[in-house]
Amino acid sequence: MDFAGWLLLADLMHEDVERVLITEEVIEKRLGVIAKKIQRDFASEEQLQVVGILKGALVFMADLLRRVPLRLEIECLNVASYHGGIESTGRVDFLDQKLPEVKGRCVLLIDDILDTGQTLEAVSRRLIKMGAREVKTCVLLTKDKPRATEVEADYSAFKIEAEFVVGYGLDYGGRYRNLPYVGVLKPNVIK
Ligand code: XMP
User: Fold this and answer.
1) Taking all residues of the chain, what is their mean pLDDT, rounded to a whole number?
2) Choosing from 115, 144, 154, 171, which is the catalytic residue?
3) Ligand 1, closest atom to CA 112?
Protein backbone atom coordinates (compact mmCIF):
# COMPACT_ATOMS: atom_id res chain seq x y z
CA MET A 1 0.00 0.00 0.00
CA ASP A 2 1.33 3.49 -0.82
CA PHE A 3 1.54 6.31 1.73
CA ALA A 4 -1.72 7.96 0.57
CA GLY A 5 -3.56 4.65 0.98
CA TRP A 6 -2.16 4.22 4.47
CA LEU A 7 -3.26 7.75 5.42
CA LEU A 8 -6.78 6.98 4.20
CA LEU A 9 -6.95 3.89 6.43
CA ALA A 10 -5.63 5.85 9.41
CA ASP A 11 -8.34 8.46 8.87
CA LEU A 12 -10.97 5.74 8.81
CA MET A 13 -9.85 4.49 12.20
CA HIS A 14 -10.01 7.97 13.77
CA GLU A 15 -13.42 8.56 12.17
CA ASP A 16 -14.89 5.78 14.34
CA VAL A 17 -14.05 7.70 17.50
CA GLU A 18 -16.76 9.88 19.02
CA ARG A 19 -14.65 11.49 21.77
CA VAL A 20 -11.01 11.56 22.80
CA LEU A 21 -10.89 11.02 26.56
CA ILE A 22 -7.15 11.17 27.20
CA THR A 23 -4.77 12.66 24.65
CA GLU A 24 -1.36 11.31 23.71
CA GLU A 25 0.35 14.32 25.36
CA VAL A 26 -1.48 13.83 28.65
CA ILE A 27 -0.68 10.10 28.67
CA GLU A 28 2.99 10.82 28.00
CA LYS A 29 3.29 13.25 30.93
CA ARG A 30 1.51 10.93 33.34
CA LEU A 31 3.72 7.96 32.36
CA GLY A 32 6.73 9.96 33.52
CA VAL A 33 5.17 10.37 36.96
CA ILE A 34 4.21 6.68 37.30
CA ALA A 35 7.63 5.55 36.06
CA LYS A 36 9.37 7.68 38.72
CA LYS A 37 7.19 6.16 41.45
CA ILE A 38 7.99 2.63 40.25
CA GLN A 39 11.68 3.43 40.05
CA ARG A 40 11.66 4.80 43.61
CA ASP A 41 9.53 1.98 45.09
CA PHE A 42 11.52 -0.88 43.54
CA ALA A 43 15.00 0.65 43.74
CA SER A 44 16.11 -1.99 46.26
CA GLU A 45 14.97 -4.98 44.15
CA GLU A 46 17.95 -6.65 42.56
CA GLN A 47 15.85 -7.70 39.59
CA LEU A 48 12.22 -6.78 39.24
CA GLN A 49 10.03 -9.26 37.38
CA VAL A 50 7.47 -7.49 35.24
CA VAL A 51 4.48 -9.45 33.90
CA GLY A 52 2.30 -7.75 31.31
CA ILE A 53 -1.17 -8.99 30.42
CA LEU A 54 -1.61 -9.38 26.67
CA LYS A 55 -2.77 -7.94 24.53
CA GLY A 56 -4.24 -4.89 26.22
CA ALA A 57 -1.16 -3.89 28.23
CA LEU A 58 1.16 -4.02 25.23
CA VAL A 59 1.29 -0.32 24.32
CA PHE A 60 1.13 1.03 27.88
CA MET A 61 3.81 -1.37 29.06
CA ALA A 62 6.21 -0.59 26.21
CA ASP A 63 5.95 3.16 26.78
CA LEU A 64 6.05 2.96 30.58
CA LEU A 65 8.94 0.53 30.99
CA ARG A 66 11.26 2.47 28.70
CA ARG A 67 11.06 5.22 31.32
CA VAL A 68 12.06 2.90 34.18
CA PRO A 69 15.85 2.48 34.26
CA LEU A 70 15.84 -0.48 36.70
CA ARG A 71 17.09 -3.99 35.86
CA LEU A 72 13.77 -5.42 34.71
CA GLU A 73 12.93 -8.86 33.45
CA ILE A 74 9.86 -8.66 31.24
CA GLU A 75 7.39 -11.48 30.63
CA CYS A 76 3.90 -11.51 29.18
CA LEU A 77 0.81 -13.49 29.94
CA ASN A 78 -2.07 -14.16 27.59
CA VAL A 79 -5.39 -13.79 29.35
CA ALA A 80 -8.90 -13.25 28.00
CA SER A 81 -11.95 -11.94 29.83
CA TYR A 82 -13.82 -9.78 27.29
CA HIS A 83 -13.90 -12.28 24.43
CA GLY A 84 -14.47 -9.55 21.82
CA GLY A 85 -17.47 -7.75 23.38
CA ILE A 86 -17.83 -4.59 25.43
CA GLU A 87 -18.43 -6.17 28.82
CA SER A 88 -16.36 -8.49 30.96
CA THR A 89 -17.68 -12.04 30.86
CA GLY A 90 -16.46 -12.57 34.42
CA ARG A 91 -14.50 -15.60 33.22
CA VAL A 92 -10.73 -15.22 33.17
CA ASP A 93 -9.05 -17.68 30.80
CA PHE A 94 -5.29 -18.29 30.92
CA LEU A 95 -4.34 -18.91 27.31
CA ASP A 96 -0.64 -19.83 27.74
CA GLN A 97 0.70 -23.35 28.07
CA LYS A 98 3.53 -22.14 30.27
CA LEU A 99 3.43 -19.29 32.77
CA PRO A 100 6.44 -17.13 33.71
CA GLU A 101 8.81 -18.38 36.41
CA VAL A 102 8.16 -16.11 39.43
CA LYS A 103 9.20 -18.20 42.44
CA GLY A 104 10.62 -15.97 45.18
CA ARG A 105 10.32 -12.89 42.97
CA CYS A 106 8.68 -9.55 43.50
CA VAL A 107 6.35 -9.09 40.52
CA LEU A 108 4.99 -5.93 38.96
CA LEU A 109 1.81 -6.98 37.14
CA ILE A 110 0.72 -4.60 34.36
CA ASP A 111 -2.69 -4.42 32.68
CA ASP A 112 -4.47 -1.88 30.53
CA ILE A 113 -7.55 -1.33 32.67
CA LEU A 114 -9.11 -2.20 36.01
CA ASP A 115 -12.80 -2.80 35.39
CA THR A 116 -14.55 -5.49 37.45
CA GLY A 117 -11.16 -6.40 38.95
CA GLN A 118 -11.50 -10.08 38.12
CA THR A 119 -8.51 -10.21 35.79
CA LEU A 120 -6.03 -8.58 38.19
CA GLU A 121 -7.39 -10.64 41.04
CA ALA A 122 -7.19 -13.96 39.16
CA VAL A 123 -3.70 -13.30 37.77
CA SER A 124 -2.31 -11.99 41.10
CA ARG A 125 -3.71 -15.04 42.86
CA ARG A 126 -2.15 -17.35 40.28
CA LEU A 127 1.27 -15.65 40.56
CA ILE A 128 1.21 -15.91 44.37
CA LYS A 129 0.24 -19.59 44.04
CA MET A 130 3.25 -20.02 41.75
CA GLY A 131 5.50 -18.72 44.53
CA ALA A 132 5.81 -14.98 43.82
CA ARG A 133 7.03 -13.23 46.99
CA GLU A 134 4.90 -10.16 46.34
CA VAL A 135 2.65 -8.89 43.53
CA LYS A 136 2.15 -5.17 42.88
CA THR A 137 -0.32 -4.08 40.21
CA CYS A 138 -0.16 -1.27 37.69
CA VAL A 139 -2.85 -0.15 35.21
CA LEU A 140 -3.27 2.65 32.71
CA LEU A 141 -6.96 3.13 33.55
CA THR A 142 -9.22 2.51 36.53
CA LYS A 143 -12.96 2.52 35.90
CA ASP A 144 -14.90 4.41 38.54
CA LYS A 145 -17.35 1.68 39.55
CA PRO A 146 -17.85 -0.98 42.21
CA ARG A 147 -15.62 -4.04 41.70
CA ALA A 148 -16.78 -7.65 41.60
CA THR A 149 -13.81 -8.44 43.79
CA GLU A 150 -11.88 -6.42 46.37
CA VAL A 151 -8.93 -5.27 44.31
CA GLU A 152 -7.41 -1.88 43.56
CA ALA A 153 -4.25 -1.18 41.58
CA ASP A 154 -1.09 -0.07 43.37
CA TYR A 155 -0.32 2.23 40.43
CA SER A 156 -3.02 3.71 38.21
CA ALA A 157 -2.40 6.43 35.65
CA PHE A 158 -6.00 7.64 35.14
CA LYS A 159 -9.44 7.21 36.64
CA ILE A 160 -12.29 7.19 34.09
CA GLU A 161 -16.06 6.90 34.08
CA ALA A 162 -17.53 3.41 33.73
CA GLU A 163 -17.82 3.43 29.94
CA PHE A 164 -16.32 1.31 27.19
CA VAL A 165 -13.08 2.81 25.84
CA VAL A 166 -10.58 1.93 23.14
CA GLY A 167 -7.09 2.96 22.08
CA TYR A 168 -3.60 2.91 23.53
CA GLY A 169 -3.78 -0.90 23.68
CA LEU A 170 -7.50 -1.32 24.31
CA ASP A 171 -9.53 -2.88 21.54
CA TYR A 172 -12.98 -3.47 20.23
CA GLY A 173 -13.17 -6.75 18.31
CA GLY A 174 -9.37 -6.73 17.98
CA ARG A 175 -9.22 -3.21 16.49
CA TYR A 176 -8.21 0.26 17.69
CA ARG A 177 -5.30 -0.86 19.89
CA ASN A 178 -3.01 1.37 17.84
CA LEU A 179 -4.93 4.58 18.48
CA PRO A 180 -2.37 6.83 20.23
CA TYR A 181 -5.02 8.13 22.67
CA VAL A 182 -7.88 6.72 24.77
CA GLY A 183 -11.30 7.38 23.30
CA VAL A 184 -14.93 6.38 23.07
CA LEU A 185 -16.31 4.82 19.88
CA LYS A 186 -19.35 6.15 18.03
CA PRO A 187 -22.44 4.09 18.98
CA ASN A 188 -23.00 2.96 15.37
CA VAL A 189 -19.53 1.31 15.33
CA ILE A 190 -20.43 -0.99 18.24
CA LYS A 191 -22.58 -3.88 17.18
P1 XMP B 1 -11.75 -6.83 34.54
O2 XMP B 1 -13.24 -6.70 34.47
O3 XMP B 1 -11.31 -8.22 34.72
O4 XMP B 1 -11.34 -6.37 33.11
O5 XMP B 1 -11.13 -5.83 35.52
C6 XMP B 1 -10.07 -6.29 32.71
C7 XMP B 1 -9.98 -6.60 31.25
O8 XMP B 1 -11.19 -6.31 30.54
C9 XMP B 1 -10.94 -5.60 29.38
N10 XMP B 1 -11.65 -4.31 29.46
C11 XMP B 1 -11.79 -3.43 28.47
N12 XMP B 1 -11.35 -3.47 27.21
N13 XMP B 1 -12.33 -1.37 26.80
C14 XMP B 1 -11.60 -2.43 26.38
O15 XMP B 1 -11.18 -2.44 25.24
C16 XMP B 1 -12.82 -1.26 28.05
O17 XMP B 1 -13.47 -0.26 28.38
C18 XMP B 1 -12.54 -2.36 28.92
N19 XMP B 1 -12.85 -2.60 30.20
C20 XMP B 1 -12.28 -3.80 30.49
C21 XMP B 1 -9.46 -5.44 29.30
O22 XMP B 1 -8.95 -6.44 28.43
C23 XMP B 1 -8.93 -5.69 30.68
O24 XMP B 1 -7.69 -6.32 30.68
Assistant:
1) 92
2) 115
3) 24
